[in-house]
Amino acid sequence: MSTITPLMPGQPVPDLSLSLVGGGTWRLSERKPDNFTMIVVYRGLHCPICKTYLRDLQDKLDAFAERGVDVLTLSTDDVDRATQSVADWEIDRLAVGYGISFEDCRRWGLFLTKGRGKTSVGVNELDIFVEPGLFLIRADGTLFFQSIQTMPFARPKFDEILKAIDYILKNDYPPRGAVIDHTKEA
User: Fold this and answer.
1) Does residue 22 belong to any structural domain of this protein?
2) According to a count of CB atoms within 10 Å of the terminal CB, is the N or C end of the chain lower?
3) Torsion-angle region of residue 127: left (phi > 0), alpha (psi -120 to 50) or beta?
């Protein structure tokens, strides 16, 4: 097993290519958003919190589009589980990618969890599945913001992300949190 690689703000992110529910392939390198691409990683069909979270995202999809943000959601689910999520959760306006590899999860700094069987909604967890993450990527392919989690709880709120994007665009706010060389004087 390879190690998790943290992504650094202001640096290029790894390319990503996934099949989409309903057909087609989504490739990060082919995206041409006006401002950002936002990738929302969810745990999978077994997660009731993911259902609520992605429904909220779908309700705000037009607001993200108005700000020049292209949105993708993805999980480690296979095509059947991802398709069932779209149907059962009524999230047919979202681009839903499926089958992200464990290697890509590690390259993106995401955490993986060993499944424990049936959940409160009666759906089995996968043997191994991805934990939530959210990435805001500039149009030039560099990381602007990320939130990586080890639990399904307390995710970034989409209303707050929309307000943040407004502030970022209005004030030409730079990415924060990049590692700097403290041995050199400023």
Assistant:
1) yes
2) C
3) alpha
